[in-house]
Amino acid sequence: MSKIFSFAFHRVSDEYSPAYPPMPIKTFDKVIKHLRRNFLIIPQEELCEKTHFQSRKSLCVITFDDAYNDFAECALPVLEKNKVQVALHIISDVADTGKIFWTQRLNKVIEGYYAEKKVLKLPDSQSGDILQFSMNSDADVERTALNVYLNLLENPDRDAIISDLERELGREVMQTRMLRWNEIAQLDSNLVSIGSHTKTHRNLMTLSDEEIKTELAESYNCIYRNLGKYPFSIAYPNGQYNDKINEMALATGYKVLYTCDAKPVTESNSCIYHRYNLYNREFWKNRLKITMFRLRG
Ligand SMILES: [Zn+2]
Question: Would the pTM of this model clear 0.85, i.e. be above it?
Answer without folding.
Answer: yes
